[in-house]
Amino acid sequence: MEDRFIKGMAEILEVESLTKESRFDEIGADWDSLAIVSTIALLDECFEIMIPGAKLAEVSSIDEILSIVNQNIETI
Amino acid sequence: MSKILDTSVYLPEKILTNKELEKIFPSWSAKKIYTKTGIKERRIAAEHETAGDMGIKAAENLFQKDIVSRLDIDFLIFCTQAPDHILPTTACIIQNELKLPKTCGALDINLGCSGYVYSLSLANGLIESGAANNVLIITSDTYSKYINPNDKSVRTLFGDAATATVIGSSSSKESIGPFVFGTDGSGAENLIVPAGLFRLPRTAKTGIEYKDSSGNYRSSNDLYMNGPEIMLFSLKEVPTAIDSLCDKSKINLDGYDYFILHQANTFMLEALRKKLKLPPKKIPIFIENTGNTVSSTIPLVLDNLLNDKKIAKGYKVLLCGFGVGYSWAACHIQF
């Protein structure tokens, strides 16, 4: 599921390839409201988890998003 | 029981294309706009064209078809979030302009994306109680007049339109209902025009523009939408509402021929489709040439499907409107 999420994020960020550690600003990705909206839908699709936009706005890499996902899963 | 007797639409003349948006926002290419939203163009009401004006035109388009006479209308529901005046009720003005009988009841309802389904519930209730026989529902909005011209986020998505629907009594198997409703006012701030009425009157201060983190400009006098929160709300509440409606109608998802959802944007519709595990053919999308027309999106889809004869006798259709408020409603229609 993590691979599917990373692939989905590459599409959202419109980059050829992406790793967990890639920093959005270093790969030229726009981490804007539209990307965040798309990521919310992708997180729900891949992990059945809802992450608020305000929290996602603060992240700068896939790793940070997955860290939030794992924290939320542990909370549940 | 009640049924839909006829529908019609009115789209304002002026068109705002993606190419024109690209000229205003150079990093927001026409191709990108279409890819991200599914919208190519949206209609914009003329400067002095009000929601009331557009609603009258939609209703006249309906009466011109001669399926329903204006003299048979005994109740008018006008659904808008941009009334002509604070008072009187715009529906009263529309009654006069349309020359509906003076024995006709008329009221405005202030709802957005959920407005058409709520209007259907009121119309159905009036007919089932015997209080009315032929209810004219007009949806009409001019969100364009609330939008800051330098706010790319909402200027891309919203368009203006009006629709008219007549609901009459049904003695056949055709019916409207059951309904489910939902309200969550904690989401009020996420789709709002903050200033302009009594909570926050307009002042020089409310008119001061600010730039958000995505480079959009707006003031408190302008429409604000928190896209991520609206997506979260939709993903959470829409599937739940549809499940509740299926419980009430005793028809499972497979039993429905169409799911006509509020046409917020293609991306959201696709996310909901995947979550509900429905095939694309069951979720019509008619947003390409109109954008998000608020309470008119659902009747616009209905009108298109009926005109193209894509809804046959016996079809079961589920409608779900959701958004500003937060407010949502779903209903079953048996054709």
Structure description:
Chain A has 76 residues and is mainly alpha-helical. Chain A has a single domain, classed as Orthogonal Bundle (Non-ribosomal Peptide Synthetase Peptidyl Carrier Protein, Chain A), CATH 1.10.1200. Chain A is 59% helix and 0% strand. Chain B is α+β, with helices and mostly antiparallel strands. Chain B has two domains: 2-171, Thiolase/Chalcone synthase (Peroxisomal Thiolase, Chain A, domain 1); 177-334, Peroxisomal Thiolase, Chain A, domain 1 (3-Layer(aba) Sandwich), CATH 3.40.47. Chain B contains nine helices and 15 strands. The longest helix of chain B has 23 residues, at 227-249. Chain B is globular and about 55 Å long. In chain B, 50% of the residues are buried. Classes of the chains: A mainly alpha (76), B alpha+beta (335). At the A-B interface, helix 2 and helix 3 of A face helix 7 and helix 8 of B.
Question: How would you summarize this macromolecular structure in one to three sentences?
Answer:
The complex is a heterodimer of chains A (76) and B (335). Chain A has helices spanning 2-13, 33-47, 53-56, 62-75.
List keywords for this structure.
heterodimer, A: 76 residues, 4 helices, 59% helix, globular, B: 335 residues, alpha+beta, Peroxisomal Thiolase, Chain A, domain 1, 2 domains, 4-stranded mixed β-sheet
Question: How are the SSEs ordered, and which strands pair?
Answer:
The complex is a heterodimer of chains A (76) and B (335).
Chain A: H1 2-13, H2 33-47, H3 53-56, H4 62-75
Helix pairs in contact in A: 1-2
Chain B: E1 2-10, E2 14-17, H1 18-24, H2 30-37, E3 41-44, H3 51-64, E4 75-79, H4 90-98, E5 105-109, H5 115-128, E6 134-141, H6 152-157, E7 161-169, E8 175-183, E9 191-192, E10 210-211, E11 217-218, E12 224-225, H7 227-249, E13 258-261, H8 266-276, H9 297-307, E14 316-323, E15 327-334
Parallel strand pairs in B: 4-5, 4-6, 13-14
Antiparallel strand pairs in B: 1-7, 2-3, 6-7, 8-15, 9-12, 10-11, 14-15
